Amino acid sequence: MHVTPMPSDSQELNQAGPVDAKLLRRACGHFVTGVTVITSGRGEQAAGTTVNSFTSVSLDPPLVLFCLHSESRLRAVVEDSGVYAVNFLAAQQEPLAWAFAGRATAVVRDVAHRPSVTGVPVLNDALAFLSCRLVNTSEVGDHTVFVGEVVELGVPEQSQQPLVFFRGEMGSLQAAV
């Protein structure tokens, strides 16, 4: 592997050989991403987890994807239900993002939500949401990629700042720059 030197002498570089996972994580941390909570399941089986590995794939058909670690507890819930919601978080929802981020996460029934047309929970006060039907999964490295077709979406009329993730920290868009 070849790495092009950066202008600063203080930059840590990964030269030829295997890529160091910690250095890769640090490098990718310089890419600003939005923060979502993926929710799936219904009733007592409803669960959610914080995810920043989300992207739009196609407008026609309307497809999106997100990735979960292969050992994520939400993986089986999404696979079993075949539906999920992507909840885009607003800057003031940072505590909610952290609550869903750990191994022992928030419980959906304890968080204000409503059902989507697919029956999965949509978090109240989210910046926007997409309710999706699972159309494909793929095992890639230590993650599963979930591709879903958007069957419902919501964009509230209020103007809010998004919650973003940058260099391992969450905050408002203005705070990240």
From TrEMBL:
<dbReference type="GO" id="GO:0010181">
    <property type="term" value="F:FMN binding"/>
</dbReference>
<keyword id="KW-0560">Oxidoreductase</keyword>
<keyword id="KW-0503">Monooxygenase</keyword>
<dbReference type="InterPro" id="IPR002563">
    <property type="entry name" value="Flavin_Rdtase-like_dom"/>
</dbReference>
<feature type="domain" description="Flavin reductase like">
    <location>
        <begin position="28"/>
        <end position="172"/>
    </location>
</feature>
<dbReference type="InterPro" id="IPR012349">
    <property type="entry name" value="Split_barrel_FMN-bd"/>
</dbReference>
<dbReference type="GO" id="GO:0004497">
    <property type="term" value="F:monooxygenase activity"/>
</dbReference>
<dbReference type="Pfam" id="PF01613">
    <property type="entry name" value="Flavin_Reduct"/>
</dbReference>
<dbReference type="InterPro" id="IPR050268">
    <property type="entry name" value="NADH-dep_flavin_reductase"/>
</dbReference>
<protein>
    <submittedName>
        <fullName>Monooxygenase</fullName>
    </submittedName>
</protein>
<dbReference type="GO" id="GO:0042602">
    <property type="term" value="F:riboflavin reductase (NADPH) activity"/>
</dbReference>
